[in-house]
Amino acid sequence: MKKICFATLLFISSGYCGLSQTPENGKNGAWNEGSITLDDETTLHGIMYYNTVNGVVLFRTSLEDPDTQTIYTSNIAYMNYMDAFDGTNKKFSSMAFTDPETKKEEIYFYEILKEFKDFVVLSKKDQLKTEVSSFQHSYSAVPKALSSHLTTVQSEEIYFVGTEGRLEKYLSLSYKKASATVYGYRSEKAKFYDRSLFPKYLHEYWKPVEKYLKDNHIELNRKENIVRGLNYYESLIQK
Questions:
Q1: What is the distance between the alpha carbons of residues 37 and 93, in angstroms, rounded to a whole number?
Q2: What is the pairing mode between strands 105-115 and 184-193?
Q3: What is the DSSP-derived secondary structure letter of residue 62?
Q4: Is 35 helix (H, G, I), strand (E, B) or coil?
Q5: How many CB atoms lie within 10 A of CB 124?
Q6: Do residues 30 and 53 touch, judged by C-beta distance below 8 A?
Q7: Residue 112 pairs with which residues in a beta bridge?
């Protein structure tokens, strides 16, 4: 059950993906309504909070349920929920692909950003890494005046996958947050960016999509911009 091939993914049955389109309102916070299918084929329906930092899903049958179940993504085959924040349907699946770099087959938990007839776009986040260090303030008159410096880094990779089932890395992002006694900052940086994949997969639709992106000043080097570009592509192929 755990090993999901591309053909199964591209076109997962609605039995796994269906859920109520009405999220809880007002008091739910980060809780979202959806369903989880475990790798033993058990299906759970309720509300969940997906912590992408450590790969854990908190699950309850309802907001009133006092019991919270902790589920690791390594035990999830499929997950689907309605994001109460932006009203979009989020889908995730554990899938096996041959790693382009190691050439070994690996199973990871992917977010399915968009799926089409002949390709899908996936996102994979690594767990958060934390570093604590100390440094001396350059403006301090005290030689040993040190400040604690906490830096957290998380990586995310976005892939195109065609009908042959091969991962092609499109974008590698690094999210960094640093905090110290006197300052703090957040940053998002694209470390890898393969501009050739959008034209490759969108074929004759790439030119109108490219024009739309230029007209709206959209650069395809951010996750939300990739989804925006693919949404426009979807509107074109449905005409």
A1: 9
A2: unpaired
A3: S
A4: strand
A5: 17
A6: no
A7: 122
